[in-house]
Design brief:
Helix content is about 25%, strand content about 25%. It is an alpha+beta fold. The strands form 2 sheets. Strands 1, 2, 3, 4, 7 and 9 form a 6-stranded mixed sheet that branches. It has a 3-stranded antiparallel sheet with strand order 5-8-6, with no helix packed on it.
């Protein structure tokens, strides 16, 4: 039986451990995502209303978390939007549709709260099937009018971004210290850091831009 509900304090440690298992050695040797989960719950931009876990037969196997972000328009507009991450599923349950269920549930709840746009950074292969598109199609850039290949946009309300060019600003909640993340990880149960091909794929994608 599948159940999606809000994360509760008694889930915190399980979710951090699950996040660590899901991301370890995927993008770098080790990972920092579990440390981000650990600290972001206390940040004012964190949205507990959009912090969900997915249970399978009573076991928490997935999680998604959101924070606030901002788009600044070329005409001086400001649009409060969302970004999510980490989103994770325990490795043994990945590629079975559980992440999709979590995301789709969160999209419905985000729209019900009045949000119109989500911007994320991730592999297009993982998110275009969920309605995300290249940021340039919506004229959403980072500073310097650059369009990262990994920056993806989803309109929860069709046409929400029409009529302007936009600059994306992440929440300070995402600006974690690699040194502090390493220190936190060192105090947990040891996991072997190693190189994987996915780390080179991540490096290429995260340093690529759309012309």
């Amino acid at each position: 039986m599948i159940n999606i509900r809000h994360e509760r304090p008694e889930d915190f440690q399980k979710v951090e451990e699950m996040t660590r298992k899901a991301f370890y050695n995927q993008y770098i040797p080790g990972c920092v995502e579990h440390y981000l989960v650990h600290i972001m719950r206390q940040h004012p931009d964190f949205l507990p209303q959009l912090d969900f876990v997915l249970e399978l037969d009573g076991q928490v196997i997935g999680n998604i978390m959101y924070t606030k972000a901002v788009l600044e328009g070329e005409h001086g507009e400001r649009k409060d939007i969302l970004t999510f991450g980490p989103v994770c599923v325990l490795p043994e349950y990945q590629r079975m549709g559980y992440g999709k269920r979590l995301m789709e549930h969160s999209f419905e709840q985000a729209k019900a709260l009045g949000y119109e746009v989500i911007v994320i950074f991730g592999s297009p292969a993982n998110y275009v099937s969920r309605g995300f598109q290249c940021c340039k199609k919506y004229q959403v850039s980072v500073e310097g009018e650059k369009y990262p290949a990994a920056m993806l946009v989803k309109e929860l309300t069709e046409g929400a971004l029409k009529g302007s060019k936009w600059v994306y600003h992440d929440s300070p909640a995402m600006a974690i210290s690699p040194e502090e993340a390493e220190k936190y990880d060192a105090g947990l149960e040891p996991m072997k850091k190693e190189w994987r091909p996915s780390q080179e794929e991540f490096y290429i994608m995260s340093h690529s831009f759309v012309e």
